[in-house]
Amino acid sequence: MSAASRAVSETQLTLNTLRQMSFEELDRLYRASPRPASIATLDGDAKGAMLAWRSPRSGVIASLLRKFGNSSAFPWEGKSFYSKGADSGSGINRVNLLGKRRWFPFATRFGASFLDGKPTFVLDYSKPANPPLIRQIVDEVREVAPRLYMGPAALKVAGRPRPILFFAVSLQ
What we know:
Blueprint: H1 3-10, H2 15-19, H3 23-32, E1 44-53, H4 59-69, E2 76-83, E3 88-96, E4 100-112, E5 119-124, E6 137-145, E7 148-157, E8 160-170
Antiparallel strand pairs: 1-2, 1-8, 2-3, 3-4, 4-5, 5-6, 6-7, 7-8
């Protein structure tokens, strides 16, 4: 058992404990976690954390990206969620780049995970207002601890989501 796994088993999960976990540990945690109880569960401004990059060729690149994601220079601050009923909602990313901005809106819904087919909370960026590359992103989250949500971000390649990293959002 890794140090990160021991920390998780001994304490409640937080953004900081998730940051210590490997891509593989995050994948296992995600697959074992339930979807949020309702769309409204995520309403509000959630603090974000980029956790781990998938890097099949070079662990050095993933390590550098992870360090940047954990630094104060990383511009992504989190996501804001707004439920529109029992089955759908919307959201937007909060970014601090050339001032505080709200960029890249997304729609939310419950659906099947692209990782394991189980129920999940899907964030779909295919809105026409987004740039073409951003429209190819699909995120999903599950609840890993009270008011703490984690999941994969994927880029659609040939119409199929390819996971590239894990991220988390916290409403605590």
